[in-house]
DNA sequence: ACACCATATACGGTTTTGCATATATATGAT
DNA sequence: ATCATATATATGCAAAACCGTATATGGTGT
């Protein structure tokens, strides 16, 4: 993946917020991101699919839920860039983080998630 | 400047190469970048204007030439991201750096530059 | 089987982006 | 003043990016 492709992936508000939240929490499912960003589910899903296709995220199905994390083979410099951005742009993410925290823990095997 | 705006600026092959070359050489003029990237002058100029408008570059006129450098007030984390990218993507830039080096020194006050 | 929840994809439309080409402006040299 | 060089901008067009809505897929529980 060339660097300009990498940065294309970060060049959208929705995708960047998803990536930074995942960087912070290691792993999040689609419905958590949908809630945290207060966006429609198809919109989130589409962006996550794009990030997966670009090799930036990997997904893991667990029951009904699909969890996304940074792709294990993402180059270190890319992870480093994401972490640097996260460290310096917490304010920009604050509302989304608050929203995540007030949702209560991870989705349970039974019952609804979001 | 929000981070997604910053990354939009890096999300193009031409712009990113300009930025990384400027990160490496501190200051370059339009004709040097035009030669190094082997692109048309209006194309380079347009992208540099965009980066200037976005607050990522600043320009300085010296005679016929306009030199661009990273904007003095660019946040440190942004500079850090650029430097990290440069350090890890030298190969991607190799041809452009070689082209710059073989052009002979900086444009002189007399004579043509490129 | 059916209903429900989570996720993915398809379709159609609007907006944005990038480009090539032509032209304008500014500086310097003769 | 004229010409050459360097840079900037304008125009028109094609391609790409995003979005909302509708619908499809897949898993869970009854």
TrEMBL record, chains A, B:
<keyword id="KW-0059">Arsenical resistance</keyword>
<dbReference type="InterPro" id="IPR011991">
    <property type="entry name" value="ArsR-like_HTH"/>
</dbReference>
<keyword id="KW-0238">DNA-binding</keyword>
<keyword id="KW-0805">Transcription regulation</keyword>
<dbReference type="GO" id="GO:0003677">
    <property type="term" value="F:DNA binding"/>
</dbReference>
<dbReference type="GO" id="GO:0003700">
    <property type="term" value="F:DNA-binding transcription factor activity"/>
</dbReference>
<dbReference type="InterPro" id="IPR001845">
    <property type="entry name" value="HTH_ArsR_DNA-bd_dom"/>
</dbReference>
<protein>
    <submittedName>
        <fullName>ArsR family transcriptional regulator</fullName>
    </submittedName>
</protein>
<keyword id="KW-0804">Transcription</keyword>
<dbReference type="GO" id="GO:0046685">
    <property type="term" value="P:response to arsenic-containing substance"/>
</dbReference>
<dbReference type="InterPro" id="IPR036388">
    <property type="entry name" value="WH-like_DNA-bd_sf"/>
</dbReference>
<dbReference type="Pfam" id="PF01022">
    <property type="entry name" value="HTH_5"/>
</dbReference>
<dbReference type="InterPro" id="IPR051081">
    <property type="entry name" value="HTH_MetalResp_TranReg"/>
</dbReference>
<dbReference type="InterPro" id="IPR036390">
    <property type="entry name" value="WH_DNA-bd_sf"/>
</dbReference>
<feature type="domain" description="HTH arsR-type">
    <location>
        <begin position="1"/>
        <end position="89"/>
    </location>
</feature>
